[in-house]
Amino acid sequence: xxxxxxxxxxxxxxxxxxxxxxxxxxxxxxxxxxxxxxxxxxxxxxxxxxxxxxxxxxxxxxxxxxxxxxxxxxxxxxxxxxxxxxxxxxxxxxxxxxxxxxxxxxxxxxxxxxxxxxxxxxxxxxxxxxxxxxxxxxxxxxxxxxxxxxxxxxxxxxxxxxxxxxxxxxxxxxxxxxxxxxxxxxxxxxxxxxxxxxxxxxxxxxxx
Length: 208
Hints:
Elements: E1 5-12, H1 22-33, E2 39-46, H2 50-64, E3 68-74, E4 81-84, E5 86-88, E6 114-116, H3 121-129, E7 137-140, H4 147-158, E8 163-168, H5 177-201
Parallel strand pairs: 1-2, 1-3, 3-8, 4-7
Antiparallel strand pairs: 4-8, 5-6
């Protein structure tokens, strides 16, 4: 009997100025590194399209019944690996790669304005900063009202908030795919430890 827990980590396809999306490059490096022998790591590249996200995420949660889902996106203004604490339901009027946006400009009709991950990102950030990976880490409560935020909120809704979102900086002299992959490995490992600690202590995590 396979007792491995499944963790899904996604990155995004290229869009706009990001001809190579650092998020998918970092996720591919994480796939090479793995998360240990007791974790079945599933990676997937997500289209920068609202409709595709709405179709793909429910199937991922249903098919794999994951322990944790971590979505990774690129931020052109980020200089650190940024852990997003919450997703927002409204304000999606920026056009995607298909030049469309939701008619309602929200993720889930009738859903709460904000959903927070059960994972305490401040605690994860403090822990990974001690790893000395040569990458900065910080926490944010605004994932940007584009496909990153849309994906995060949708997944938080589907997975009972057992989800996380990480923004990575663009690739360049300071940040390589390999370095970002190592940072992701450290972040996801700490998130899994925190989830296990929460189960042990019967905690439910953060709420808005």
